[in-house]
Recover the amino acids of this structure.
């Protein structure tokens, strides 16, 4: 949505040098193909230049001298050159396109590899559609840059240089006229090119907005339709599309103007040259063959300049795309593995020691203040409190999605930020408030945290989570496809699959955030019995609004405004805490 500022692109455009260095680094990994491409490029350019000499030979020795033998010889020479050029061009095209595809695939992977490990806060600031457009659209721009533009630029620069040398050798006077034209061509290219570049970047950003807008509306399609917002959504989308079109239109207008300017300047110069050169041939200073060869080289130079103008603006466009990709690849995660992770074997003892925290997006609003508690291995701790008190935030901190601003969190006596993220997360399993399922089968969803689990283990976990019976009642059973984000299942069914998924990983610390809120009391009792059977094998932290579900917890923390208001067992709290009594009465009523 356009109202959300784009952080991805907030940074001012990077200096071109690091961009070129990165590009070179990426290409440098494929030295063999690069060498083939370079050799083919040099050869075909050299051969093209030789063609001019073939033409001179054909005109002077064959046509003007009226010698059929020489004409034949010249033509066979030209034909041989053409065949060699065909082979060279084949190699060049293949190698260069291969490099384009390879580098964009490498970049796509690097960007995704870095993204998937970034701190979750990053994804709150940057919309998923926008990030995906970086990985797909920007890498495609790059593929065309390396796969054609760079090669075209190099080829045309070579031709221009070679053509100019040959022109000088043929007629320095005429060359002078061309040389005067060149700066007149290059100056407007540079100025207009810069404008095209900035518009290109804007154009890419607008496109990303369009993608994000569509993704959100489609993901929330039922909300959009139920609230009768189809027409307004269409208008909003249309505005995004039109604003993207408008920037694109301005970009192509600049670019068209750039191309038109180049054509006029180049052909103006050529006409001047033909006028002067034609007079030289008439007065006998130049031979007809030399004049033909000169025109051929001049055309090469002119076409080279024209193509360069076009390619330069494309290179600039891709420069923007590459800058953004490099930004993505080099982003450091705020949550990272420590340099030397501690040696660790989890038992499930958890300690919060004076923990305070505010979300990075609202640094001045403390969500947790001086929170301390202790859970022994195998114990169950319940967190209760009004909505927004900070209970789910406690779970986020345990999983190290954020760092506390003060205080320490320890798992089995080790600070969690001195454990590697995989050590920490292997010890924990979570059932979130809104369980997320992937568009795969039920079995695959349960296996998500332990892909190598056997069918038996999957069935057992489902049984403990009270899911086995309903899964078997579905015609395809465990192979049933759950739809995107699990839309084909009910809320309670999704919750039970999420519980099965968590139990299957055999965690030492199980975090249940309103995990049974959508279940009927029968299914809920079934899960509670299963959890009691597992007591001792894992510690359990439960957030619940229905207090009847946590009455048996070893310890209950009553949290309000991010602080512990009271702590104790159910019976103790009923007498000691007014807030607990209120919450209890509300949840019972
Ligand atoms: N990503 C976030 N960025 C900024 N603020 C957040 C974020 N997530 C939660 N908050 C804020 O932090 C506070 C605590 O939220 P939290 O989800 O921990 O509450 P809770 O006690 O679990 O509530 P509930 O019982 O409704 O689930 C709330 O005021 C919420 O608005």
């Amino acid at each position: 949505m356009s109202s959300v500022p784009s952080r991805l692109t907030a940074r001012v455009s990077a200096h071109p040098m690091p961009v070129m260095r990165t590009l070179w680094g990426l290409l440098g990994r494929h030295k063999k193909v690069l060498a083939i491409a370079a050799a083919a490029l040099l050869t075909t350019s050299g051969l093209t230049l030789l063609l001019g000499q073939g033409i001179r030979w054909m005109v002077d020795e064959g046509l003007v001298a009226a010698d059929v033998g020489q004409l034949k010889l010249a033509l066979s020479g030209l034909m041989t050159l053409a065949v060699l050029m065909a082979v060279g061009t084949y190699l060049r095209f293949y190698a260069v396109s291969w490099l384009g595809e390879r580098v964009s695939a490498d970049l796509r992977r690097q960007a995704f590899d870095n993204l998937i490990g970034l701190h979750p806060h990053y994804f709150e600031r940057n919309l998923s559609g926008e990030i995906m457009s970086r990985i797909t659209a920007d890498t495609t721009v790059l593929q065309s840059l390396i796969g054609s533009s760079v090669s075209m630029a190099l080829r045309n620069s070579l031709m221009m240089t070679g053509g100019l040398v040959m022109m000088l050798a043929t007629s320095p006077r005429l060359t002078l006229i061309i040389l005067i034209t060149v700066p007149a061509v290059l100056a407007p290219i540079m100025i207009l090119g810069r404008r095209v570049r900035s518009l290109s970047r804007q154009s890419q950003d607008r496109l990303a907005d369009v993608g994000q807008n569509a993704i959100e509306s489609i993901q929330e399609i039922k909300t959009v339709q139920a609230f009768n917002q189809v027409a307004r959504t269409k208008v909003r989308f249309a505005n995004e599309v039109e604003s993207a079109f408008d920037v694109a239109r301005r970009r192509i207008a600049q670019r068209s103007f750039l191309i038109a300017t180049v054509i006029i300047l180049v052909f103006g110069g050529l006409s001047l040259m033909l006028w002067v050169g034609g007079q030289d041939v008439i007065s006998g200073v130049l031979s007809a063959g030399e004049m033909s060869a000169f025109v051929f080289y001049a055309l090469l130079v002119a076409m080279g300049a024209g193509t360069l103008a076009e390619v330069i603006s494309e290179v600039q466009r891709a420069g923007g795309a590459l800058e953004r990709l490099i930004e993505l690849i080099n982003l450091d995660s705020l949550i990272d593995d420590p340099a030397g992770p501690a040696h660790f074997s989890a038992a499930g003892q958890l300690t919060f020691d004076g923990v305070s925290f505010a979300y990075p997006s609202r640094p001045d609003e403390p969500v947790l203040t001086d929170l301390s508690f202790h859970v022994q291995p195998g114990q169950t701790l319940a967190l209760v409190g009004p909505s927004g008190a900070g209970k789910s935030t406690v779970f986020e901190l345990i999983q190290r999605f954020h760092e506390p601003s003060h205080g320490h969190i320890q798992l089995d006596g080790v600070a969690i930020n001195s454990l590697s993220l995989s050590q920490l997360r292997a010890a924990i399993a979570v059932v979130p408030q809104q369980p997320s399922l992937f568009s795969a089968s039920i079995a695959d969803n349960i296996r998500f945290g332990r892909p190598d689990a056997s069918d038996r283990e999957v069935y057992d976990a489902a049984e403990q989570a009270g899911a086995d019976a309903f899964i078997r009642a579905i015609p395809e059973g465990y192979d049933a496809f759950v739809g995107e984000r699990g839309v084909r299942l009910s809320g309670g069914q999704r919750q039970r699959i999420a519980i099965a998924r968590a139990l299957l990983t055999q965690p030492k610390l199980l975090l249940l955030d309103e995990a049974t809120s959508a279940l009927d009391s029968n299914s809920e009792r079934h899960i509670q019995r299963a959890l009691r059977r597992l007591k001792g094998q894992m510690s359990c932290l439960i957030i619940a609004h229905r207090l009847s579900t946590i009455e048996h917890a070893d310890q209950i923390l009553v949290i309000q405004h991010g602080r512990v208001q009271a702590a104790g067992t159910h019976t103790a709290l009923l007498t000691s805490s007014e807030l607990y009594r209120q919450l209890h009465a509300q949840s019972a009523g």
